[in-house]
Amino acid sequence: MAKGNPYSADPFPGISKWKNEAVLVTGASSGIGWDIALALGRAGMRVAVTGRRKEQLEELLALLNDCGAKGLAIPADFSREEDIANVFERIRSEWGGVRVLINNAGLGYQEDLARGSTESWREMLDVNVLALTLCMQEAIKDMESAGLGQIINISSVAGHRVPLGKQFGMYSATKHAVKALTEAMWGELAAKGSPIKIGTISPGMVETEWHAKAFDDVAKAQQRYAETKSLQPDDIADVVCFLLSTPAHVQINEITLRPIGQKV
Ligand SMILES: NC(=O)c1ccc[n+]([C@@H]2O[C@H](COP(=O)([O-])OP(=O)(O)OC[C@H]3O[C@@H](n4cnc5c(N)ncnc54)[C@H](OP(=O)(O)O)[C@@H]3O)[C@@H](O)[C@H]2O)c1
Predict the structure, then answer these.
(1) Residue 8's pLDDT is what?
(2) Mind listing the domains of the chain with CATH numbers?
(3) Cα 220 to Cα 97, 143, 144, 242, distances in angstroms
(4) Which residues lie with the beta carbon below 6 Å from any ligand 1 atom?
(5) What is the radius of gyration, based on Cα positions, of the chain?
(6) DSSP codes of every residue in 79-110
(7) Ligand 1 atom 28 nearest Cα
């Protein structure tokens, strides 16, 4: 993980229009969300970060402050609806609401559908699907009252094709749901003539804590990263900065990126 790497927003001058605006990055306590939060803080945004792990969020907040950014760390368990509501209430009371939402919190468990447990299915569905939808719903309230906003949902290549033989059936189903929900929300916004933009980023393999948690095996995850040069979290942060730098009339609905060498 490229924690705290220097990052310049200069390649994306259009991102300056978001200076001092509030962004919520979910799942920011590690991995992709961590790097997105830092990149947006360095671009001058006010950055609210969530996740369950309070200490990591405090560490991230200190890094945001080091680079001159205003931050807000709000610990929350996204399988609990009241925690999600609290995150938005806190941002409204501190900063007047969210203008950009990076819907990134997510997890996957590697297990056969024939033997998987309802407990792990429910957790993936709660966080990857329901929490993501509730966050869109809450954020759109703020964005509509401001007449401005952008939502970026983090999906996966597994949201476009099922990785057969990899035991990620339910995870893949949740990311296919992200694709459907993003498109459905785009349709609702477009029907209203809304200026709010929405799209997904679908990464292939990124080197984070994700695989160790998914496999329940750190060594297996490290072996996977050694076999194929993976994407790094700041590669995804670059794509976020690009999407936020586009002119008001340009809406990019989907970007898929894989590391060279990935075969699925
Ligand atoms: N790594 C990859 O190869 C890859 C590829 C494609 C897509 N993605 C997607 O990218 C996103 C970020 O994953 P990552 O690779 O950065 O993995 P990661 O390092 O494991 O980060 C996952 C983040 O989600 C948060 N999260 C998980 N369960 C949560 C819960 N119940 N409540 C609140 N937050 C929760 C975690 O925070 P806490 O643990 O502190 O709660 C953490 O901040 C996920 O949606 C993932 O599916 C990853």
Answers:
(1) 54
(2) 14-254 (3.40.50.720)
(3) 41, 42, 45, 33
(4) 27-33, 51-53, 76-79, 104-108, 127, 154, 156, 203, 205-206, 208-210, 213
(5) 17
(6) TSHHHHHHHHHHHHHHHSS-SEEEE-------
(7) 106
Read off the pLDDT of residues 35-50 as tens digits, 9 standing for 90 and up. Answer: 999 999 999 999 999 9
Question: What is the per-residue pLDDT across 175-227, written as a single tens digit (0 to 9) for each?
Answer: 999 999 999 999 999 999 999 999 999 999 999 999 999 999 999 999 999 98
Query: Structure tokens of 132?
Result: 């993501």
CA dihedral for 119, 231, 256, 34, sign (positive or negative) = positive
| Cβ atoms of residues 41 and 6 within 8 Å | no
Structural contact between residues 144 and 101, judged by C-beta atoms closer than 8 angstroms: no
Query: Residues with Cβ < 8 Å from 45, sequence gap 6 or more?
Result: 18, 19, 20, 21, 22, 23, 69, 100
User: What span, in angstroms and rounded, lies between the C-alpha atoms of 71 and 223?
Assistant: 35
The interaxial angle of helices 132-146 and 81-95, nearest 10 deg, is: 20
Q: Mark whether 225 is an active-site residue.
A: no
